[in-house]
Each structure stands twice: as C-alpha cells, then as structure tokens.
Design brief:
Number of strands of chain A: 11
Number of helices of chain A: 0
Helix content of chain B: under 10%
Strand content of chain A: over 45%
Strand content of chain B: over 45%
Radius of gyration of chain A: 13 Å
Radius of gyration of chain B: 13 Å
Order of helices and strands of chain B: EEEEEEEEEEE
Structural class of chain B: mainly beta
Largest sheet of chain B: 7 strands, mixed
Largest interface: A-B, 24 and 24 residues
Shape of chain B: globular
Oligomer: heterodimer
Shape of chain A: globular
Helix content of chain A: under 10%
Number of helices of chain B: 0
Number of strands of chain B: 11
Structural class of chain A: mainly beta
Order of helices and strands of chain A: EEEEEEEEEEE
Chain lengths: 114, 116
C-alpha cells in the first residue's frame, strides 16, 4: 500500500520568512495530494491540494509543487504569520477521479515566531 | 463547503464498557466515510472505510470485533469501541467526501475518548 513520508517533523521560522515542508510517496498510482492544517484540538482543514496532472498550484501565500517522477511534493508558505502556526499534514490518494481515502504523513509542527 | 459532525466531542468511560461515536454528513450524502485514530502529537491513522449498506473495510492491524462500524444510511456512520480498555484512549476522527468528482475530505471535529 501507499506510504507517505513527511519532513521535517518540526519547523520553526521567524515571522515573514518562508516555510517549506516536503513529502514523498511510494505508490506511483497516487494522483491526488492534499495538504491539511490542524490546529490544536481541532479538525484538519484542507488548505491546498494538487493533482498529478499539474506540477504546481498556488493560492495566495501557499503553494504546492509536485514531482511525479521523483514521487515527492512540497508545501511552500511565504510571508509566514503567527497564525500559520499549526501542524501540517500531507496526504496521498490513489483512487483516481474520486476518493477520500487518504494516507497521511506524520505531520510537521510549524511554529512562526513573532 | 460541506459539514461533517461528530458526536460526542469527548467521552469518558470505564474499562469493559462500550462507546459509540457518530459521524454525520449534515448537508450531503456520503456513501463512504473513513475513521481515523490520532494519538497525541501524532498523525492520522486510517482505521477503516465505512461503506453504506455493506461491511466496513478495515486496515491491517485493526481489530474488526473491537471497533464495530455501521453505515446504515447515507448520512450516518457509527464507530463502536467494544470492551474498551485504557489503551483505546485516543482521538477518533471521521471524514467523508461528497462523491466522485470532489475528492476533498471533510473531517468531523473528532471525539476524545478516555477509558479509565
């Protein structure tokens, strides 16, 4: 089955700096890669996702890149703010067209210092 | 968006008792829901896929008789932790999607189970 590795497990940056979180996956059939943000005690919330037919996607300060050949994808947050502090999870799904079954990475705790 | 509601938000039970957790999709129908377990400061571990009108599909290592899943309608899936023990204490969270053309998973708010 699918295996998703995520690095780093913790990341501390100064406000205004950029943060990058990287994930690799094992199943070449995976074609949907979402990123979730989870604040303490709350449910995960989708922040951005990318499909395998796209190499990059951007939404304001957040961008995701995908390298299918290397089987890795990354989350980029620019101009970080203290409210970006949370745990971020990457995930991969292998059911093309419609699947909510996700295999998650272990998470990255991001701390943005004012 | 879509709303998935989970109940209860937290529960404390005695060892040996059973606890039922509900997951409801409030504004859409979900033929498939997913149950995850999350340990403190850890990732979301998929336990099982709940299929409306049929048996759940369990992930390797998850005890079917321990974690009973029922998906009797298109808007409700339940997870029953049977004969709970302290090691079952965890954060349980469900997710559901809207269907074929939308793969976003919407999560419930989670249930904090403490077995004493």
């Amino acid at each position: 089955g699918e295996n998703v590795e995520q690095h780093p497990s913790t990341l501390s940056v100064q406000e205004g700096d950029s943060a990058v979180i990287k994930c690799t996956y094992s199943d070449s059939a995976s074609n949907y890669f979402p990123w979730y943000k989870q604040e303490l005690g709350k449910r995960p919330q989708l922040i951005i996702d990318i499909r395998s037919n796209v190499g990059e996607k951007k939404d304001q300060r957040i961008a995701v890149t995908l390298n299918k050949t290397a089987k890795h994808f990354s989350l980029h947050i620019t101009e970080t703010q203290p409210e970006d502090s949370a745990v971020y999870f990457c995930a991969a799904s292998d059911k093309g067209g419609g699947s909510e079954k996700l295999v998650f990475g272990k998470g990255t705790k991001l701390t943005v210092n004012p | 968006g879509a709303v998935v509601s989970q109940h209860p938000s937290w529960v404390i039970c005695k060892s040996g008792t059973s606890v039922k957790i509900e997951c409801r999709s409030l504004d859409f129908q979900a033929t498939t829901m997913f149950w995850y377990r999350q340990f403190p400061k850890k990732s979301l571990m998929l336990m099982a896929t709940s299929n409306e009108g049929s048996k759940a599909t369990y992930e390797q290592g998850v005890e079917k008789d321990k974690f009973l899943i029922n998906h009797a309608s298109l808007t409700l899936s339940t997870l029953t932790v049977t004969s709970a023990h302290p090691e079952d204490s965890s954060f349980y969270i469900c997710s559901a999607g809207k269907g074929l053309m939308n793969t976003e998973a919407f999560f419930g708010q989670g249930t904090r189970l403490t077995v004493v």
